[in-house]
Design goal:
single chain, about 80% helix, MFS_trans_sf, about 450 residues, Growth Hormone, Chain: A, 19 helices, 2 domains, Sugar_transporter_CS, mainly alpha
Length: about 450
């Protein structure tokens, strides 16, 4: 599996990986909390399950990024799929709190493993085929659109399946009775997601070709990962453009925390009941994913109209921030007009974030060498998660009303303003890229005599 793929084939396989990875997680969005409740879990326990997921993902984010740069993209992606397979199975079938908590922790580990390897594989493949100046934004945009489409489809399907099972004559009750309560109607989306994870692992192992990497011993892995992680952190410290990408990710995390924490309560207040509010929230989440997918698809056009990738990020984040500020401005008002403006604001948030992502990552990939690419993506993801967690804690103590929305909007607007000062986009010299352990660097040498020239991201 060492042959070089052409760009169209690499793009198609990258999109397929995005769909197969995110569809199972989309299937779990709507039924997850209801399934925990149906299993008799109190809200405190449910909060603990989600904390296990978040803390595990945050703790493993950087080490697993380094793991991808040392062992290879395909190996780590397959491991992420296996962890998600185990997690969805435990969550779907588990009845004891410790099993459900373990399932959520494994899901967090799978999330950490998955943040970066697929995208790093795509960029490596394209640049091996066409050189370091290859066009990346279109493929990254289509991958983002595919991710959003998979999440939207999974959210709708995951919410509809338990409802459809309830339409038949005691079909759901018979399912529970025949499995002694092990499989509930709300479990079915999780088990379907587990089946998709099997397909994901098989596809990754058979379709993602990589340059040959030297066999890695445990000592090599343990020695190579810390050096790779330190290289990624140092890059953000000394490269102004990469630092802006990381800070923008944190600003996006603040916006997402605000909208995801505040929208369910606002939907329930609008409909007058938590059950109907949950249905409205599922529809809004699906619409948000669709808007993000449209924004991602429009990212290349946005960059052309804006004149550069950096201006495109500024415009996109500014549009997203205006949407969140619009949500804040309408939070204290009722009426049809306010609802319409709030819906427009909600769509703008996701549309802008979707449009900003491919341009941000295009800039990042042209700044980071292949040997540290997945690590840089993990640093970006970690920035988003940490700022999102901090914003969530602050929102929890703020009074209800416009203020929590305006907090997220203000932080995101600050992220957009970071891009006013334009910096050059020429690739840094090899010395400016992260220098991980030599094992990581040598893994790219089969692409050419000068791996830094062959794999420099930007």
């Amino acid at each position: 599996m060492t042959g070089t793929l052409d760009i169209r084939t690499a793009r198609r396989r990258y999109i397929t990986v995005c769909v197969l990875f995110w569809l199972p997680l989309g299937l779990s969005i709507a039924p997850l909390i209801l399934l925990f409740t149906e299993r008799g879990m109190p809200m405190a326990a449910i909060a603990g399950f989600f904390a296990a997921h978040s803390l595990t993902a945050a703790a493993l984010e950087l080490p697993t990024g380094g793991l991808s740069d040392v062992l290879g993209r395909r190996t780590v992606l397959a491991a992420a799929g296996l962890l998600n397979l185990a997690a969805l199975t435990l969550v779907g079938l588990g009845t004891a709190p410790w099993l459900l908590g373990l399932g959520m922790a494994l899901m967090g580990a799978g999330r950490a493993l998955s943040s970066g390897p697929a995208e790093a594989w795509y960029v490596d493949t394209v640049q091996t085929h066409s050189g370091p100046d290859a066009e990346l934004r279109t493929g990254l945009a289509r991958g983002g659109s595919a991710t959003s489409a998979a999440l939207a489809t999974g959210t709708l399907l995951g919410g509809a399946l338990p409802w459809l099972l309830g339409l038949g004559p005691d079909l759901g009750a018979r399912l529970s009775e025949s499995t002694s309560g092990l499989v509930l109607p709300l479990s079915v989306p999780m088990l379907l997601g587990a089946a998709v994870e099997i397909a994901f692992v098989l596809y990754v192992l058979t379709a993602l070709r990589e340059p040959h990497r030297p066999a890695a011993t445990l000592r090599d892995v343990l020695r190579g990962i810390p050096a790779t992680v330190v290289g990624g952190l140092r890059l953000g410290g000394r490269d102004a453009l990469v630092r802006r990408v990381f800070l923008s990710a944190g600003a996006a995390g603040s916006a997402l925390a605000a909208i995801e924490l505040l929208t369910p309560g606002r939907a329930a207040a609008l409909t007058g009941a938590s059950e109907s509010g949950a249905v409205l929230f599922a529809a809004l989440a699906c619409a948000g994913f669709i808007c993000a997918g449209i924004g991602s698809h429009l990212a290349p056009l946005t960059a052309r109209l804006a004149g550069s990738g950096e201006r495109a990020v500024m415009v996109s984040l500014g549009a997203s921030a205006s949407g969140l500020l619009l949500l804040g401005a309408t939070a204290a008002f009722a009426g049809v007009g306010s609802m319409v403006l709030a819906a427009v604001g909600y769509g703008l948030v996701y549309l802008g974030l979707g449009a900003a992502g491919p341009s941000e990552n295009d800039l990042l990939h042209r700044r980071v060498a292949s040997s540290g690419r997945a690590t840089a993506l993990s640093v970006q993801s970690l920035a988003l998660q940490l700022v999102a967690a901090l914003t969530g804690l602050i929102i929890g103590v703020l009074p209800s009303g416009p203020l929590p929305w305006l907090l997220g909007g203000t932080v995101l607007l600050a992220g957009a303003l970071l891009w006013i000062r334009r910096s050059g986009t020429r690739p840094p010299t090899p010395a400016a890229t992260p220098q991980p352990h030599t094992m990581s660097s040598s893994s790219t040498s089969t692409a050419g005599s000068d791996p830094h020239q062959q794999h420099a991201d930007q």
